[in-house]
């Protein structure tokens, strides 16, 4: 059900933002980013399917058992879901703030714990690790963003093609689309939970 998936996307985004504030250089943040990116890609595909269904029934909604008001509701639902996905994508694409990471042992060094001349200070080492993780995460995020952008372009192209053939809409339309968007609909793909 797309409505439930959008709710899950919001919750995952909230979790990502909390982790970003509390542990900006953690593996947990990288995992949260990956989860968000996967959700965005999956939901973008679902939106594309619904947009194709809308384009197919829009010329003659009554032929598919829909009133003009029901069609408007579905269009509004898809637009709202698309807006939510874009908002989360924008959050995900913003670079993580480079907040200095405190050293593991912030106590001042004493004569009993001298530094070797060629040893880096602990806080410098931590900051270098932090910067490295951020660069890796930004690189992965850029790759995901490119993939999502490609999927979005494909959806736009498909929508244009369907509109070009509105005189002869297909006879079969996704049963998910014909149901109320707020109801519990079965997944279109059997491999999805």
From TrEMBL:
SUPFAM superfamilies: SNARE fusion complex (SSF58038), t-snare proteins (SSF47661). GO terms for cellular component: endomembrane system; membrane. It holds the Pfam family STX6_10_61_N. It is found in: Endomembrane system. GO terms for biological process: Golgi vesicle transport; protein transport. InterPro entries: SNARE, Syntaxin-6/10/61_N. Residues 182-193 have a biased composition (Basic and acidic residues). It is a single-pass type IV membrane protein. Residues 5-88 form the Syntaxin 6/10/61 N-terminal domain. Its main location: membrane. It comes from the Eukaryota. This is t-SNARE affecting a late Golgi compartment protein 1. It comes from Neolecta irregularis (strain DAH-3).
């Amino acid at each position: 059900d797309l409505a439930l998936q959008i709710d899950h996307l919001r919750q995952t985004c909230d979790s990502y933002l909390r982790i970003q504030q509390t542990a900006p250089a953690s593996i947990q943040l990288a995992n949260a980013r990956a989860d968000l990116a996967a959700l965005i890609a999956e939901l973008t595909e679902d939106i594309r399917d619904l947009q194709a269904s809308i384009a197919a029934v829009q010329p003659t909604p009554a032929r598919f058992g829909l009133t003009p008001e029901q069609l408007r509701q579905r269009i509004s639902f898809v637009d709202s879901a698309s807006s939510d996905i874009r908002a989360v994508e924008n959050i995900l694409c913003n670079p993580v703030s480079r907040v200095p990471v405190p050293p593991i042992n912030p106590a001042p060094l004493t004569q009993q714990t001298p530094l070797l001349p060629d040893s880096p200070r602990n806080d410098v080492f931590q900051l270098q690790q932090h910067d490295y993780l951020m660069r890796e995460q930004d690189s992965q995020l850029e790759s995901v963003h490119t993939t999502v952008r490609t999927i979005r372009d494909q959806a736009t192209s498909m929508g244009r093609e369907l509109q070009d053939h509105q005189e002869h809409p297909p006879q079969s339309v996704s049963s998910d689309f014909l149901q109320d968007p707020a109801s519990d609909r079965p997944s279109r793909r059997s491999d999805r939970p």
